[in-house]
Each structure stands twice: as C-alpha cells, then as structure tokens.
Input
Amino acid sequence: MKYYVKSTALLDIKSNIIIGLYENGEFSSSAKKIDEISQGYLTNLIQSGEITGKIGEVLVLRHLPNYSAERVFVVGVGKKGEINEKQFKQIIQDTIKVVKSTKAQEVISYLSDIEIKNRDLYWNIRFSVETIETSFYQFEQFKSKKKEQDVALTQFVFSTQGEVAQQAIEHASAVALGVKFAKDVANCPPNICNPMYLAEQAKALATRSDLIKTTVLGEKELAELKMNAYLAVSQGSVNEAQLSLIEYRNHPNPNAKPIVLVGKGLTFDAGGISLKPAEAMDEMKYDMGGAASVYGVMNAIAELKLPLNVIGVLAGCENLPDGNAYRPGDILTTMKGLTVEVLNTDAEGRLVLCDTLTYVERFDPELVIDVATLTGACVVALGAHNSGLISTDDELAKALEQAAAETTDKAWRLPLSEEYQEQLKSNFADLANIGGRWGGAITAGAFLSNFTDKYRWAHLDIAGTAWLQGANKGATGRPVPLLVQFLINQAKNA
Ligand code: BES
Ligand code: MN
Ligand code: ZN
Output
C-alpha cells in the first residue's frame, strides 16, 4: 500500500472519499460539505435512522446527487471529543475492511480531521497507517491453499498537509515493517525456525542495509568465552546455539556508545528435564519472541536510518530433554564468574540471558534493554495487555513507559528491591535459578540484575504480550512499536 499526504479539495474528487460522521447528528466539516452539495443526502439518512454515527458503522454510498466521487464511505466515529486511541483504531479497522470489499483502488481519507483525545495529527496518521498495515498481515507460508487477498486498493491518501503528517507515515511504515518481520520469524515453526535460522535472518539483514554488520557466534566461541550457563541450556539439543550480533552504526559521532537490545531466542522451550505439560506446548515456539522483536526493531531503524548506534543481540538456542541435557541440581559457572544452582531446567531464559548480558559489557553500552518471554508469572500478574518492565534506572524506566504510552504498546513497571534477591539464595552456589512461588516475574528480573551492574539496564517481560492465544493465535509483533518509539525519542533527544 502506498500512503500519501495531499490536501485535496473535496469537490474535485473523482475516485473515493472517506468521511467521518459523529454520533448525535453532528457533522465533521467534510461531512457537512458533502451534505450541502448533495442537498441533504446525509441529513436524510440520519433522519430515517439509516446512519447514526456510532462506531462500527461504515456505509458505502454511490452516485450521490451532484457529487463527482465514485464512492463515499461514511464512517461512524462516535462522540466528538471523546474518541480514544482504541476506538480510533477500531474505526480505521472497520473502515478498511469495507473499503477492501469494494473495487476502490484509491481512497482519499478525511478521517485525519477526526480528533483523538489528547492526540495530534501525527498520531492520527501513525495509528491509521499501522492499523491498515496490520489488517494486511497473513502468515500463509505453510498453507498449500492461500486465502485470496483480492484487494483492489493500492493508494491511501490523507487529505491534510505538512511535514508532520509525512513523518508520521514514515515512522508508521517502519514500525509496521518491523512488526511484520518480527511476526514472520515468531510464527515460523520450530523445526524450521531453529537457532541457525535466526542467525541466518540476522545475517541477511546485513545484506539489506549498509549500516548493519552481523557477526554470529557458535558453541565453540561461546565455550571460549566461558558462557557456560547459556551452553548448559543448549546442551540437550542437536541444534547448535547461535548468538547473533547485529551492529547498526549511524550515529554522527561514530564513537558514540551504543544502545544494546538483547532478545531471548529460545526457538523452542520444552522445559528440558523439568519438562512442561503437553497442553499448549506448541506455543513455546514463541519463546524466541524477544529475539524476533529485536530483529524487527533492527529492520525498522535501518529503514528510518535513525542517527544512533544500536546493537541488536539475538540469543538463540533450544531447551529440550535429552540424555545429554542439563539437570536440576547442576551448578553452572557463568561468564561473569557467579555460580548458579539449577533448580528447574525450565527457568532457562535467565541462564541464556545472564551470560549474554555479561557478553555485551564489551560494547561499553549507553544502556541495555533485554526483551524476553521470561515468565508465566508475568502473564498471571499483567495479563496479555501490559509487558512487564523492570529496571535499575528510573530515568530509563520512565523513557520506556513514555514510549509505551505513546504507542499504546503498553508496559507496566514492577518493583525491584533487595528482598527479592533473598528468594534466590542457594545452599550450594551463589544463586539459585528460581525464586519460589511468589513474585516470579520479579525474581526472574532480580536474577538478571546480578549481571547488569556495568551499565544502565531495563528488562521487558513479554510472555503475555508477544503472542495471542485462541482463535487468533499468532505473534503480535510486540514490543516492536514500543522499542522503535523509544529509539525515535532517543534520536530526537540526542
Ligand atoms: N518461556 C517460559 C515462560 C513462559 C511461560 C512464556 C508461559 C510464555 C508463556 C520460561 O522459560 C519458563 O518456563 N518459565 C518458568 C519459570 C519457572 C520454572 C520459575 C515459568 O514461568 O513457569
Ligand atoms: Mn522455560
Ligand atoms: Zn522459556
């Protein structure tokens, strides 16, 4: 789909127009003009009760008296001044569905005039483009019969003007691209999307952008680096662990410290010897959702050419039971030197991440954010709506909360204080890899914090937000919008 910003005179439109209609008969300025031209056509429809302006209502009108446009899409937009972000996205979703069902090739939308509560034109257009792009997403690589997407629409014009609108389209398109890339790898089945596959995607990214260089470390290199916790998790799998380093350098000062994003990349997590129950185990193919989102973000910033240095790290491996698998009771010596007693092999994400968080010290990071489908406890605490945020740095946490609120890719901060560390005590090693029944999302974050003293750090637990269950099962691409926005803001403030 191509998006344009063009201030268009309503009377000149020959193709198709989208206008908003408020509830309780109030006209948007474009609806008012069309009503006048057509001698009260809309007024009549309202009086006969055929349109009400309620959200969810989309009418296609053709051959309006005295009006040249081929089709007029009249969209209910609810109560003026009361439309929130969620409702606005719903309006766009409903509209685009009806537009797609017609033969319209080009539409000129006046919905950019619709005011979203506490939001400006920029966000109106960002939400519009992101919602439309999402409506086109399908994952059908493995279906022998593809669903027909017989859509005529190719051009979407926002009838407005200005630099801000243009920038909103660019930002939204990049976010949507990142979300799509993240979804594609995350939805991919674990027999195809294994650690090697993840690494290949990381390498392919470097061939698409001159600003990116990718390096991949295999188990031999990880062993030389003494990343024993990471390797222990991978031990039960015939698929070799792969740590991908995607280095994006475009800061005006080439020596500027990089922002490092670390993604948990368990391409499958069976739990290991502490085997998971069979029910819904297939969903553990999404246990690389953190790596998928980091990969998506790197695609998006390369598209935007943000003036930053960013290193995306995909910590790929697989957690399986096997004769050679690591066991409960094993004591591992991490790269940092801290020893960890394994009390549950299903708490593997923190083991992979702790060594990766030590590894990235060598980049002398400005800050580090890890992204992980880390705990079921986070889903219990926050459900599927908010990612869990944990940080040792209030300013960084605030910046992430702000980006989350701006994009509506929500996150909620959880506390992190020394009491939680006490739950991680082991009789035999420096740390245990689980912290007991209570506060599981926090003790997982507390575990990681032992490996992050060298830099500003935040952790996003996306176990509840990275994919949807049920009929619409599939990857969501979260938290790509949040992270890309965070980086856009960082570039602005630099
Ligand atoms: N990948 C899981 C976390 C997870 C669970 C993500 C459900 C999404 C949905 C993680 O590796 C795990 O198994 N965590 C355990 C930790 C426990 C053993 C302390 C969990 O949450 O049960
Ligand atoms: Mn696990
Ligand atoms: Zn896991």
The two ends are 32 Å apart (CA to CA).
